[in-house]
Amino acid sequence: MSDSEYTLKEETTLxxxxxxxxxxxxxxEHEREFDLQFRRDxxxxxxxxxxxxxxxxxxxxxxxxxSNPHLDFSESVLEKYLVSLEDLNxxxxxxxxxxxxxxxxxxxxxxxxQRRELNLASLLEFQKIxxxxxxDVIRQEFDNLILTAPATNQAYSKFLKDxxxxxxxPEETIPDENANDDDDELNISGGKVSLKDAITxxxxxxxxxxxxxxxxYEESSIRAHLATKNTCPISGCNATISPNSLxxxxxxxxxxxxxxxxxxxxxxxxxxxx
Length: 274
Prior knowledge:
One of its GO terms (biological process) is double-strand break repair via homologous recombination. The structure is a single chain. The protein has 10 helices and 5 strands. Strand 3 and strand 4 form a beta hairpin. The chain folds into 2 domains: 141 residues, no CATH class; 66 residues, no CATH class. About 2% of the residues have low confidence. Helix content is 54%, strand content 5%. The strands form 2 sheets. Strands 4-3-5 form a 3-stranded antiparallel β-sheet. It has 274 residues and is mainly α. The chain is elongated, with a radius of gyration of 31 Å.
């Protein structure tokens, strides 16, 4: 072996007592991947697209069933849309938490330490560092952070929950834990939700709901009423309403469809008994 070969081997031989420090920085490619995956603009676009897709599919299904009188709603289909939406809401919420965690001082400090390269020259410095690893810092801050803002599509998730409830119980009021802006706290008699218009006493065909007071009416009758008055016609309600405050009441339509299905089913059972 030549002197040059012996010298090279001697210079590259590591000490027998060498050991890695407790604090080891992430590989640069992992740090870049972390920044890329949880950058606000990229994650926002991804969730907006996925959430919109689920909502559009659910809306299309509901409109399709309501526009075809001979069809009934499937609980399993609505449940699948609800589960998909809630899963996306959960991931979106956790991602928003992670975005906020990245801005916290402890995490920023830990990320700065990660940018130092670990080599033989810096080994002693790293062995003196008494600090938690970046993943541990992120995990701790993530667990401690509480978001006050609701998920982006929380209201639509509640609407799907209400829809599932009314197709099972078409004449019952929606429990408080499921109540939302599309709820039907209206025209209740004897603990039941009336499926008839309070003005004409006929079953709803095109129900609309007032944003002002939450009551539901048949569209033609309430518009005729508003031609001469601007107050809610429901007894005991003095809310001021206008044509602009009315919107289609899809939950009432779903109630009527479910009630019709149940009545048809009961009639078949009676015919079978007879």
